[in-house]
Amino acid sequence: MMFDYSGLYQFLYSVSSWLLWEVGRILGFIGIDSGNILYPIRQFLVDPQFVYFVALLLTALIYLVAALLFGIQFIWMERKFLGRFMDRRGTSVGFLGFFQNFADAFKVLLKAVITPKDADKRVYQFAIFAILAVSFMLLGLVPWDINWYAVNVPLALLLGLAVFSLAPFALILAGWSSNNKYTLIGGIRGAAQLIAYEVPLLLVVVSVIVMTGTLNFNEMVAWQQGNIILFIPLFIGALTFFIAGVAESERVPFDLPEAEAELVEGWQTEYGSLGWGLVMCADYLRAFIICALFSILFLGGWTGPTFLPGSVWMLAKAALVFFFMIWVRAAMVRIRTDQLLKFCWNRLLPLAVINLAVAVLIKIYAVGGW
């Protein structure tokens, strides 16, 4: 839903007026003149700037809760499907094992918060919030229906890519501040991987911009609704975007920053309890956002048969893309660092360039020129 600040203003105005009226009645009953006391308070509470600020806080709180629930939901989804791929049940607490992740979340919350003795404590803690901020800001930019979004800016895609490019810095800060050789190596690996795979990812996004002629998510979905979903003409780009997205989310087979056999847990090694839980939630949320972006760019976003709301189609398409990510994790093994970078520069980058050329040719000769 698109948040209606005017409706929220009216609600807060009514609530504050009623509360102050009741307080005034009580003060009047005990013989105190409430006019001079309550009037300044009422003027402050119903001030449009104050109400707008409260509306922004409520919007941020709603998206924070939604982000945490999305992370828990997709952790459950992966654990359940991985169990089936490995011929076992997977999670089993509650209905279909759904409450297993909530039990694990409470367990993480109850653990003691321990900071490494030699760590740079301020940077060590700041890195967690930087990683979370990237994921939360990206979630706020992604629309889930034509009228369900937090912000709708003309350059939403460009802003999203700019926010996404901040992730490597957060990984380096997390690895360096822990003062551990394994975390530092993991942070450097993660930053190198994210920076490398952003290049083919950006070229694929440029091809979508060429086809649709816009940087706005809503207009991209509208273009596909009126023409054709871009997965068909830009199949090479969709495949490149998916592979680069798996690498950007540090998932198998591109999970070298967290290679347990080599680096314990990579840049996350020294994080425990709540910090580790928040980092894991941010990782899954980032993977889910990539799936949502894939749905918007190539699968028509929330468009679908009208017997279901558009937001349901959007979530279903994103969940389908995430299922293929789980399938890749179950079917493939981790590659080496040199293979990781060679695959990016020697395979994905040429495919992204070819896809961009195809998009330009289609735009000129099939769609009718610029």
Describe this structure in words.
- The protein has 370 residues and is an all-alpha fold.
- It folds into 2 domains: 5-46; 65-366, no CATH class.
- Helix content is 71%, strand content 0%.
- The longest helix is centred in the first third of the chain and has 38 residues, at 48-85.
- The chain starts with a helix and ends with a helix.
- The model is unreliable at 1-5 (pLDDT under 50).
Helix fraction? over 70%
Instruction: Report the count of strand segments.
Output: 0
Model regions low in confidence, pLDDT < 50 over at least 5 residues: 1-5
If you compute it from the alpha carbons, what radius of gyration comes out, rounded to the nearest whole angstrom? 24 Å
| Tally of structural domains | 2
Largest sheet: none
Give the CA-CA distance, first to last residue. Answer: 34 Å
Write the layout of secondary structure elements.
Blueprint: H1 5-29, H2 35-45, H3 48-85, H4 100-110, H5 121-141, H6 156-164, H7 167-177, H8 181-212, H9 217-226, H10 235-248, H11 260-263, H12 273-298, H13 310-331, H14 337-366
Brief sketch in words of this structure:
The chain is mostly helical. The protein has 14 helices and no strands.
